[in-house]
Amino acid sequence: MSRQSLAKAHQKIQELSWEPQYHEPYMKYGTDYTFRKAAKKDPLKQVLRSYFPMEEEKDHRVYGAQDGAIRGNMFRQVQERWLEWQKLFLSIIPLPEISAARSMPMLFHVVPNPELHNGQAIQMIDEVRHSTIQQNLKRLYMNNYIDPAGFNNSLRNFQTDYCGTIGRQFAEGFITGDAITAASIYLTIVAETAFTNTLFVAMPAEAAANGDYLLPTVFHSVQSDESRHISNGYATLLMALSDEDNRQLLERDLRYAWWNNHRVVDAAIGTFIEYGTKDRRKDRESYAEMWRRWIYDDYYRSYLIPLEKYGLTIPHDLVEESWKQIWEKGYVHEVAQFFATGWLANYWRIDGMTDEDFEWFEYKYPGWYDRYGKWWENYNRLATPNGHNAIVAEDVDYVYPHRCWTCMVPCLVREDMVMAEVDGQWRTYCHEVCRWTDAEAFRPVYQGRETPNMGKLVGHREWETLYHGWNWADVVTDMGFVRDDGKTMTAQPHLNLDPKKMWTLDHMRRMPPLQSPNVLLNEMTDTEREAFRADYVRQGPAGRPAPTD
Amino acid sequence: MTTTERTERSVPKPVFTDAEAGAREFPDSSPAARRYNYFTPAKRKQTHYEDVTVEVQPDPRHYLAQGWIYGFANGEGGYPLHWTKLKAWGVDEPEPARGIGSGAMHVQNWPAHGWHEFRDPNEEWEQSLFRYNANVVRQLTQNVDNARNSKAFDQWTPNWIRFVERNVGAWMHIEHILGLYVFAANERSCPTNMHNTALAANSTRKIRFAQDLALYNLTLSEEIDAFDGAAHLDAWNNDAEWQGVRKVCEALTAVQDDWGEAIFAANVVFEPLLGELFRSNLVMQSAAGNGDYVTPTVMGAGEYDYAQRDLRWTISCFAPLTQDREFADHNKALFQQWLSHWVPQALDAARQLQPLWSQTDHKPPRFEDGLDHAKSRFAGILGDLGLDTPEELKQ
To answer: How close does chain A come to B99, measured CA to CA in Å?
Structure first.
């Protein structure tokens, strides 16, 4: 279709817009936002007559590349260090995608602009595409990569594993609570507009550097749809901004959505890119450099700040704080270290860092070796079973962290940990913003204003609670992270597939029982709890115990 | 000519890793480990469709150890099973009560409840969805282009032009409302990823068909001098014949908090008694006699969507519920109650359409014959679902 005829066709389909005459549609989902003014045009201007052939052509390219990769023996050049992390990533990501599809109808119910519903419906179809095309990519990896364990049971694993639970925020957050908070601000304005840049552009580039050109093939195809979804969010945001009453809610939701995305996406993607790669060229961008380019410059400075003139209150302080977390406080390094500490609770293999890695980290993040080098040397020393326990139960100057009740990533930047009694339970938070999210934002009243549609944080948010007092062998068995010989663990702290070098349930059996930090916290007296807090915030970096005075 | 020394470019170096399947032997290296192993396939061998849809959306009754982590204001998260009054076996069983030291409490009898047994017989996922719809729009474009090039629209009589501009035009609104505000609107509410995907695919076809009709209308406006491209709006908003259908169509969007009822009423009642009645028994039967061989190809694409895809998944979704090992009686009673509610409305709307049968020069088969045909088709669908034909059908 030519551009001119496309414009005419789009104009024609606007005649389909519906004004109810006999029955008003049932409004199942609610919002505390109001839309009384300024309907916006459908920014997508997508007509299905051209959309379907376009997507089919994109599919041809994706599936053609997949056939080529298999015929060309791509997996002879794929780095195992990289592909092991895909067991985590690809177990999570199809759910956020299909949740995005589920969230679009919530917007039909609350955004009173039939023209925008067209774009939202197309986004719904796109998201079905993304979920199934990603699930199919994982299937291809399972069939052709050397170690299928972790891919073959991924959708059971991620529902059981704490990493999967962290990732589920990036899905359940789209489909519950206030429809605008969930499906517009959290999903399209922040997740899709800002953080898919690192998810779907930066990370695939790293995959290619590690011999995997299928991840970029699939995810760049996905990202070419995402760029259209950004327009959906922008149009809804402008509608919301035109109503003064919404500004307080917009400020709340941008703060929550920005911080939660930073905590979750930077933790995961930062780790994949920095610790999952074998590409240690000094001139390849670090995650911090990518973040500065994709998130800070492209999103914050080019997209968000210009919205200030329309009355949007931008969380400048949180953007700067996020950067500080990544650049000064070692957020990504702390997360990667925690993943590796808890390798035995997961379902992929985590390679240790080598001298070449150390040199690269020191070059990119001066001071890295002094903080993390010794711990990673210990990780390598303890990688294959040799009469010792897994690293989590050995003395390596690392204090097992408490989890953040809100984002569920542990409180790794220890000095920032906040403790509070909320809903009758003592909870730890990784940062004051996460405490605010739980205790103030996700409540039916916000700063004196009724917010009856706002969602709730629910569930067993600390994974360790479920296994408090269990032996590690039973934990791993219960989760099902065991290979087909019935004893070798799916996860390993190295990449050696020699069965004699692999950890088994027998090695787990001799370890001390797993303890839930939160259960223990709630068993403490007030005095003990305060002493715990005072000690915790003096710990770190790299999980080191508080210095003894 | 001078030469300059090239510095080595900084690019990642290919490395031979030998990380392909079968390169080494170790626990889980066998071909048997290369299949998704967390669900029980519907048939002996798991299908590609199942691999890309089943279990993508979690269920606390399966493996969701920490439970839902976000809820609505009332604390409910995920895809509550009570968002329809229909029931599948197992739904009244309590969810595992997890807590301190409980472990994951994984499902022992997957799928735990009957909703997870649904498989879309169309096996819709992204590849099938785009292939199918791209083929439809390509074929339609070719048909219309060919008609335009051969001046086929010159054969149309004035009465037929009026009929198409008003009535074929009016139908685009029905498809649009059903696509967006019935099928897509309920896509959030259904219980599993297989339902969600089938609903999204159904919605997509409806929205496409609505746009096919709108764009066909645009082409006719450009090709036929006397064709009024805005007349469909007047017919839809004002013609008495259309107000009954419109009323039922809008009522489908207003079903109170029951995705099952909305989809059942749309695909089991509305479509055969009104959709096929209009599309097949009026438009497609009338066109040839009125010199029009193009409109039936456009209408026929939508008709094929319903007959071969939308209805197929609907029967696979609802028929097992009338045979459900635990709730068959409950579901049958509910379906019959819904039939009693929706069938009279649909028949009343059908009768309001009757004057359309007299508007064209070359008359289609009689309205009563068309309606009988629609009723007979409807009764057959109810038979496939294991339901009784309601008394109201005799009206």
So the answer is: 6
